[in-house]
Amino acid sequence: MKVALVVLTLLCMPSSASASTDIDVGLFKNQKVVIKIPRKLYQYENASIATGAAIYTVSAMTIDRETNPILREADPILVVGGHRNWAEIGWPLMMEFYFDKAKTKKEYHELEFRSASAYIKLRLDVPSHDVRRVLYSLVYPGSLYTFEKTDYYRETLIGKVLPKIFVDALSKLPIEKQIGLLKAVRYNDEAIRYERFKNANYLSFGLGDDPNVYNTLRLNQHSRAARVINDLVLPSLKEAALYITDTPEIGGIKMAIRILYKDFLQERNIHPHAEVLEIYAPYNLIEKFFNLDITNQQLVDGSVILMNGNRMQVSLAGAQ
């Protein structure tokens, strides 16, 4: 049985890279696409020394059905990150990229996509005549707006993925509110659940990994916490508040995020360290925060903040 290897690499690069194409992939330069691969299948590889942006990879295999006469006319089986049902195990990145160029190299075909802040290199170890077929299984050619109107979005993401994210009492929320909450946490489909904390029920969201890797030569732990709370946690809290009105059983919102950091000088070629930031924000303060009745700092002061399980105080001025 023949297999084909697909590798996607997400990394930051300048947008001025030159463009060329020597294989026909069915896309024109600067064509907008959305990558369907669930974000949870990306594996951390490294970080950009220039910006600190994380670099991720995800691998996939296609099974050559020509070895099986019964399945010869069917679509190829695409296994991504070790999963045959890869499209149903999580939400995609929900980002727009633009096709830049395609090159045939010794061991694979390489296709590059860019956005304002990142590049994706798609490497296909397949025969040239299979490149377009495999590519269109992994990407949608179009905008995010039109992607959300496709049968794939409605039948696979809404129909099969969403019910796996919103379970138990959360399944009673209207689909519009479920999508809104998912968007509020940057489409991270880690467990969204209830959690009991200090005699109150908290709606708990996992924000996953901060996309940045912080340089310890510039930011200490308190500064990292202030930066992440100010830039990521508070906007997510404010957006989530829109979708939990009229739910008296919810006493607050918990958000957790993993912060990656390392010494960029001494630890350039090793994986970053990680710390987990958790914030338990009471709903009455979230409501005041949403209505602009209190400041960011007042919300933070009235919440419980933990770093690796230890209580800490955070001054948002340290984010500067």
Please characterize this protein's 3D structure.
This protein is α+β, with helices and mostly antiparallel strands and 320 residues long. The chain folds into 2 domains: 3-151, no CATH class; 169-319, no CATH class. 22% of the residues lie in helices and 33% in strands. The chain has helices spanning 131-138, 144-147, 151-165, 175-184, 221-241, 283-290, 296-301, and strands at residues 3-11, 32-35, 43-47, 54-63, 77-80, 96-104, 109-114, 119-125, 139-141, 193-197, 200-215, 252-262, 273-282, 304-307, 310-311. The strands form 2 sheets. Strands 1, 2, 3, 4, 5, 6, 7, 8 and 9 form a 9-stranded antiparallel β-sheet that branches. Strands 10-11-12-13-14-15 form a 6-stranded mixed β-sheet. A hairpin with a 2-residue loop joins strand 14 (304-307) and strand 15 (310-311). Helix 5 (221-241) packs across helix 6. The chain is globular and about 60 Å long. The N and C termini lie far apart (56 Å). Residues 1-6 and 10-20 have low confidence and may be disordered.
What is the N-to-C succession of helices and strands? EEEEEEEEHEHHHEEHEEHHEE
- How helical, in percent, are the residues? 10-25%
Give the end-to-end Cα distance, rounded to a whole number of Å. Answer: 56 Å
Q: What is the number of E strands?
A: 15
Largest sheet, described in full? 9 strands, antiparallel
Shape annotation: globular
Q: β content, as a range?
A: 25-35%
Task: Tell me the radius of gyration.
Answer: 22 Å
Give the count of helical stretches. 7
List low-confidence stretches.
1-6, 10-20
Mean of residue pLDDT values: 82
